Amino acid sequence: MATIVFKCPHCGGPFECAEGDRGAVCRFCGVTSVISGDSGVHRLLIRERIDLNAARTAVRKLLAAGESGRESATSFSFKEGTLFFLPFWRVRGMATGWQWREKETFREEVDYDENGTRFTRTVKGENERSFSLIAKPLDFSTPAGEYSSFGQMRVGIAAAVLKCEALDYQDTAARGTVADPLKGVAQARQEALAVTRGGGNSEGTIRREERVRISSEWLALTYYPVWRLLFTRGGRVYPVAIDAVNGDVIRCQFPGEERRERFLPLAFIAMVLLGWTTTPTAGVALTALAVYLLKWRTGTLDAPSIIKLLAGTSKRSAGVQRG
Amino acid sequence: MNTTRCPQCGFKAELLTESDFHTCSQCRTLFRVFGGQSVSEQYFRHEPNDALAWGALIGLLDFAGAVVPAAPTAISFGYHPFWFADLDNGSTRFKAAGSALDGYPLPPAPPPGNLEFPPPGRSFPQPTIAPETFLARIEAPVRLRLLQLPLYLITFELSGQPCQATVSGCTWQVYLPNLPDETGVHVSSSRLLFLGGYIALLLLAGTLAPNIFWRSVLIALILLAAWWFERSGDRKD
Amino acid sequence: MADAGFRIVPLVCGRCAARMTAGKEQVAYQCSGCGSVWELAGGLLVPREVDHLSGSGDILLPFWYASFIINSQEGVVDNTMIFMKMCGSVKTAAAPNEAPLVFVPAFLLPPPQSIRLGRNMTVRFPSLHLSPVRDLPVEPVTVAEADVPAMAELILLSTLVEEKRNNPLFLVSFSVELSSPRLVSIPFMREGNRLLQPEMNLEV
Would you say the ipTM is above 0.90? Predict the structure, then answer.
């Protein structure tokens, strides 16, 4: 469970409480205070743990670990980086309600045909109806906007184990872009309840009625830090998203290094022309040798492969992709 | 006297003037009224940079393995209005409010970023799609916003076919339609010129050389020179 | 940016200004000086009246209770007699025409046990003999008044006879109207790991 740090209203000392707790005792002055979130939605911040340099290093390391290694890591230049604080809805509480299901049932029945041969058949049984009360804890996180360009972040897990603090907008906005939530809380609640309802075996269910709602709700917008870096190579721009808490590269699309055969196509042409400008026999012999070498090199003798090799079209190693 | 509700705080506002622009007496938000519907206008701050937008597009094409075009046919930056409604049931609706984007791929949702109210004196493109048209199939919007998105509209050629792409100025995310299938082998004109010159030189040396020894030496020299030329060209790239 | 939503409220009794203490899950706080109970609502500490049930015991467990009306496709349940019929009880109600009461345990208990205890109390139709202020402290209140309607609905659904629980039309039409809930402390006796209420034949 996340720890939230405030200032004690009595002595001003740091005052910690676990996410969802309603009260705690200040360890400096001993006064108990309770936390009210009724006036709005709690806005919590998970502070960034890596700076821009560490984020750049994380990308370089990832590139260096790729197929093209060091060559790839040095071929991309860093252009710029921005820290984003992305809001995520966090819904905690108790999902309470009821669920009623009607299921089809089938049973195996043994029967005999006119020749007396035994066989089994499947017969539809009586529908099975079940009623259950739902009262289970709920802990759900969902992006408060469309963040596909940033990749997948495991904010729910992070928010449950990391220290959060009340969001100080001015201070946070001075360090990066604080994104606005563009998904309503009702939508987050619906998603949370859908996850609650999703459990259980629904095979054979022909009708389902339910009413589930959230009680003891504790609602927060958790702002999660993500670095957005731009790398360039030859005028091309490659955006990268880096988790600013643990330094993981969560989204990037770097193409592989181009590998071009330089000498071989020139040598083949020279060999063929040397033969044909000497004698026709030499031309035939050296062309046959060139064809053999081509087959050995490309593994095929189809025209596009040969044209690609002779034209010096580059081959590319596997790129580096995340998210 | 006409009344409406502030789209930001919901406070009842009396429209005392004929102007489309009003300030909420409760939260001081500037909002507009379109046909009786109160709308708050917000925008994402952005410094235009065409080179970065084009770079983001060719970076994506490069990663996808497409033949990267050398330059765009056209590139234009601008703010584009989008309707964004928060609905009673908690969901949202998002749609382009203008026709300038016709033919360009559209962002399916607003990008992440800091939404700001336009400063006094700053004007943005006006919506050509009326809010009533946008809200026609929507029940009970709680709040209607006009979001001004910084977008780059790029036209370019890919495998001889015209293509259109949109790049978001907020995150440099590229919105692309399906790329045309590339068939055949693409050889650049400079490469063809180089190969033509190389073959011509080889033929010349092969026919003019007095014997097999000089022919071999000359052809080997031309091969080495061509190889050196190509390597130095690569290094320059 | 909207209001950050946090308000940190020092726990000071609004009647006698004594400091109060709070556990992690607690939502209502009892002043050890004057015995008044306060709950945090809307960013403020608001007083909650607590009734005390007479009887002997060495621990006082808090419950929320409220009168209710059930609306369903079968009609309105607004007195004890009709409610007894609905939940298949064969007992004779002491006050058949009075509004029935639902009890929601207000102390820390896992949800299934909380529903079972609330159900048992509700279907036993206890007559409330209230006593003056008790000298024992009431166990911490961990269920907020705002969460009583949801728990009360579950408890009332659990009292239904099986025939009704298997009827989807009845379930969909089922809704509960509650009066304003009040807290009541009920004395229980400790017996090993169990807590017993002999007059109502309850066990926790």
Answer: no
